[in-house]
Amino acid sequence: MSTTTTNESRRKAPAGERVADWADGRLGIYGLAKANMRKIFPDHWSFMLGEVALYSFIIIILTGVYLTLFFHPSMNEVTYHGSYEPMQGIMMSEAYASTLEISFDVRGGLLIRQIHHWAALLFLAGMFVHMMRVFFTGAFRKPREINWLFGFLLFVLGMFTGFTGYSLPDDLLSGTGVRFTQGAILSMPVVGTYISMFLFGGEFPGTDFVARFYSIHILLLPGIMLGLLVAHLILVFFHKHTQFAGPGRTNKNVVGMPLLPIYMAKAGGFFFLVFGMIAAISAIAQINPIWAIGPYRADQVSTGAQPDWYMGFAEGLIRFMPGWEVNLWGHTLVLGVFIPLVLFGLLLVIFALYPFFEAWLTGDKREHHIADRPRNAPTRTAFGVAWVTMYLIMLVGGGNDLWATHFHLSINAITWFVRIFFIVGPLLAFIITKRICMGLQRRDRDKVLHGRETGIIKRLPHGEFVEIHEPLSQAKLHSLTAHDQYEPIEIGPTVDENGVERKIPLSQKLRAKLSKGYFGEGNQIPKPTAEEYREITSGHGHH
């Protein structure tokens, strides 16, 4: 075909096709789209938890852009003359006054504020539950350890982004929280004073912290989070999504639906569903009514001052600690604040590095694309439930004054409950969860060997009554027996053939001990073997 004929046919093509041809000639997007737009994604309800977090983040960005158009991040004092009568003539910062203006004078401003705040809460809740799903199903294993770290960093940065965000209105509640944070910073030896002076531009509250928090909140942290989110999604796309065991599903394939058009259509509908639910909650449930609290003043403290739920863990650690202090070389070290800060960071680091610990413990270097059922990893599941239990107990500690006033309890009794159950609660949760997982494994083993109970009772010729069991389908048998079971690592003989004692590294001894605790006898129920299944289904003992 001649060049003239080709050009004429292009001119006759629809406008959209001509634009697509023009873009493909310069960006090469056709080949990229052809290779990736039919990528397969598995379908399971738990995979939607990450989507809830993603869509909430998009809503936060959209509403945040709208709010920045009207917010004045300044601590200059002004006299209020707006439309909210109870505040007439009161001195306040420009930040607080502009937040009142957004709430009462900007069209749709209060609704957008509430959508922004509720979306932030749902974003962190979605990430938390999504991370728990990843943890309990072992979806953090090779090759996804780095992606686990990306997700974990997103959660931690989201916590601090939320903190800087609800501090911006400069109301009495958020100001009390900022003062609490400044006290925690000051408890850090040597560097605490310098960090506080740098952050607040002088003695608290200074004149710059709202402007500095504003820059951190809308530029620095969201920029880092956006980069992490893009990297996270690219790795999800590159590594494939995990899937639960089932017929035809292996570590080398994905069974599900194509990205286009099915998955994208469902994802688009789900986005608007999430947006609609957040908008409905924001229209019905009031949150952060700063006009009822008043502007921040350094000589006042708001009663019932509570952070958002995701910061309750850190606040609970500080509230349950005794007020210990140590004087060293003329300096006072406030252990009652410093120890919880160290403990908070330590617990987060342990949770972040868990995938690497489990990889070291098992020595497994294979790629894993099949998700575990939580019951089939009882020790890991028990650790996860213990961590969540500790988190919830600290939430109680972070709101001990509200528990006391709402339920007419002694605040001292609540504090001692938190102190005791910070240790006892996770331990009980670990033991109970592990026993439940072991019981569920026994039930699965029984179902594989004996089939499903039908509820039909049959009387045998010699008078015995038995229940008829229905054999499981091959698909169900596969799902119940497809999981891996690791053997505990053995150190081997400590003395060689010449009677010379081997020098065994401490790390190897520790690894063997932990491996036995994870995978040794009494820590997992052996899967039924093919021989056991054939023997029992051949008629011997099977009804």
TrEMBL record:
Keywords: Membrane, Transmembrane, Transmembrane helix. Residues 19-245 form the Cytochrome b/b6 N-terminal region profile domain. The keyword Transmembrane helix applies. Its EC number is 7.1.1.8. The keyword Nucleotide-binding does not apply. Its cofactor is heme. The chain crosses the membrane at residues 52-71, 117-136, 148-168, 213-238, 259-285, 328-357, 377-396, 416-437. This is Cytochrome bc1 complex cytochrome b subunit. It comes from Streptomyces sannanensis.
